[in-house]
Amino acid sequence: MRREFMLPPYGYMIEVETSGKKLRDDIINSLMDAGIFVMDPGDDSKPFYVSCESLEAVRESLEPEKFIRNTKTQYINITVRSYS
Predict the structure, then answer these.
(1) Each residue's pLDDT tens digit, 5-19
(2) What letter does residue 68 receive in the DSSP assignment?
(3) All domains of the chain, ordered by start, with CATH?
(4) By Cβ atoms counted within 10 A, which residue in 34, 38, 43, 53 is the most buried?
(5) According to the 3-state scheme, what is the secondary structure of 27-62?
(6) Averaged pLDDT score across all residues of the chain
(7) Residue 73 has pLDDT above 90, yes or no
(8) What span, in angstroms and rounded, lies between the C-alpha atoms of 1 and 25?
(9) How far apart, in whole angstroms, are the C-alpha atoms of residue 69 and residue 29?
(10) Edge-to-edge strand order for the sheet containing 48-52?
């Protein structure tokens, strides 16, 4: 089952926390549009999780100016977990 959902050790588990609901929703939508599996607990004050085989697709989804370069008043905290 871990392999099917690309969970460690077969993939990466990424925890994403944001400071605002709109930023959170925009990031989730961007990841899902890129075909990345998002696990959202449905509580805007809690982090959501992403599982993926490669970090490159996640980086590309989060890199656009709307997220990384324009976060002066908001923050994005990303934690990557991988087990070997």
Answers:
(1) 777 777 888 999 988
(2) T
(3) 12-81 (3.30.70.600)
(4) 38
(5) HHHHHHHCCCEEECCCCCCCCEEEEECCHHHHHHHH
(6) 83
(7) no
(8) 27
(9) 18
(10) 37-39, 48-52, 12-18, 76-81
